[in-house]
Amino acid sequence: MKTDQVRKYASEAFHFESDEETPNNPRLPLVVYRDVVPDQAMGDAATWFEQTFADNGWSDGWRNGIYPFLHFHTGTHEVLGIARGRATVEFGGAKGRALTVEAGDVVVLPAGTGHKRLDASADLLVVGAYPSNGRFDQKRPGQVDREAASRAVAAVPLPERDPVSGSTGPVIELWRGR
């Protein structure tokens, strides 16, 4: 997917501190991109997300929803593209923040960021993927020692490209400081 096919979009960044349940990520913010899917692709946003993410080095894609239990990844970052419907998701654990995302939005979660679905429309469809330089795992609170989880999160390499915009975009600007 060429970056010129990506519409201009707004983004928001959120930092979450570690808590008793989830390590979160002390240095990298969660980034929410609003309304990124071009109008002509909204009829098949899932395919657009899959292609765009893959073109930018985010692979091992899947289609599903968002789990209704708190979980996090200590070996990889994750991108969620909302292809259809809407959801309210708690990011950052119990001391985090509930955000509503809807069709066309993207959420990029740095490794360690807790997330769970609080509510969703019946038609919710999410496309997820991971940067090719990560190592997939999925943990729940209590399944991993907090210090070990924090060390693992700190060791996760930065993705080489922004999952939507490639060599530019919020992940590059905010996570790499460019």
Q: How many beta strands in the DSSP annotation? A: 9
What is the name of the CATH class?
A: Mainly Beta
User: Hey, roughly how much beta strand do the residues contain?
Assistant: 25-35%
Output the CATH topology: Jelly Rolls
Structural domain count: 1
Question: Could you describe the largest sheet, including whether it forms a barrel?
Answer: 6 strands, antiparallel
Assign the structural class, choosing from mainly alpha, mainly beta, alpha/beta, alpha+beta, or little secondary structure. Answer: alpha+beta
Features:
six-stranded antiparallel β-sheet, 3 helices, globular, alpha+beta, three-stranded antiparallel β-sheet, Jelly Rolls, 178 residues
Structure description:
With 178 residues, this protein is α+β, with helices and mostly antiparallel strands. The chain has one domain: Jelly Rolls (Sandwich). It has helices spanning 45-55, 146-155, 170-176, and strands spanning 10-14, 30-34, 58-64, 78-84, 86-91, 97-102, 106-109, 115-120, 125-131. The longest helix is centred in the N-terminal third of the chain and has 11 residues, at 45-55. The protein starts with 9 loop residues before the first strand and ends with a helix. The relative contact order is 0.24.
